[in-house]
Amino acid sequence: MPSLPTISEKDEARAAASDAGAPEGSFDAPTASAHDEATIAYVTSLGDDALILGQRLSEWCGHAPALEVDLSLANMGLDLIGQATNWLGLAARHDERYANADALAFHRDVLDFRNCLLVEQPNGDFAQTMARQLLFSTWQHLLLERLAGASDEAIAGIAAKSVKEVAYHRELSHDWVVRLGDGTEESKRRMAAGLDWCWRFIPELFEVTEELEALVQRGIAVDPRSFEEEYRAALAATLEEATLDAPAEQRPILGGRRGHHSEHLGHLLAVMQYLPRTYPEAKW
Amino acid sequence: MSDWPLWEVFVRAKGGLSHRHVGSVHAPDREMALNHARDTYTRRLEGVSLWVVKSSDIVASDPDQSGPTFEPAADKVYRHPTFYEIPDEVKHI
What we know:
heterodimer; A: 284 residues; mainly alpha; Ferritin; 12 helices; B: 93 residues; alpha+beta; Ubiquitin-like (UB roll); three-stranded antiparallel β-sheet
């Protein structure tokens, strides 16, 4: 006689949860379950931002302009991949379809990724990489500072843990943008071009969908518009110190949060996902 | 990048210990030197405080002069405080 399958941790947790509260299938009170679909999608988007930028930064490994810079970029990439592991791990714990963070990272296709378009943009030269980092880390830092006070303990915990790492990313990218902007004629030209490339992806960072609005109402998510002014002021201060003019406002490109990505993400995923998809049980 | 000056890096492993020389980094200026030192030498929780000093600011003894500089101390054992009887009650000497 075949033995019964072992009880998965997930089922056990669900059983414990339903024992403790209302029986499964009953109507939830409006705010009963913090980890509903919208919350999972929000947490996934935070994880995807970190994962994709971490993967992008890892492409510099062995190619940075100096050994010290190589280490800076690799450290930053590893910080972000660590954050992605936490966010996606949290998402997977509440999503039946995925066993763990790795499943979310390696076994989703491009349309299922919820990262903003900024982080998937190619590295370009070092100046463009630093422009992207300044624009993203400044936003991420302001967001995480506020998210650390969110009503959901798990979300607030990951935010509080990540915020110190991101404070350094923000400082380092600021330092580089200032030095390249206020450097030689060539470094200034490249820094301006890098900022110009990234600038059109800023509005997406402050886009608020209906789902996000609902999460903000419940105290789970942070409304990015609450720190948009501070963000713009911080960028303006960096640009002034770097003796650079702000790039002209361009037609914004939106859609990453809905899975409408640029062609760059597919190529990034092909490299990132190749090994675990080809050798699903590979260990190293 | 090849014209970046060299900086010597000193790390204090924990409070109460002195800073120890751990190596050097290249960097364009003092703030970046500190960033590079952090990323290169404290990424595995090695320290609680960092110093960087421009290598060119360090005054070093001349290796060719090591005879006159150091050898005169070689035969002066009386400079070591080892000729005293320490009473048993005195600890931590």
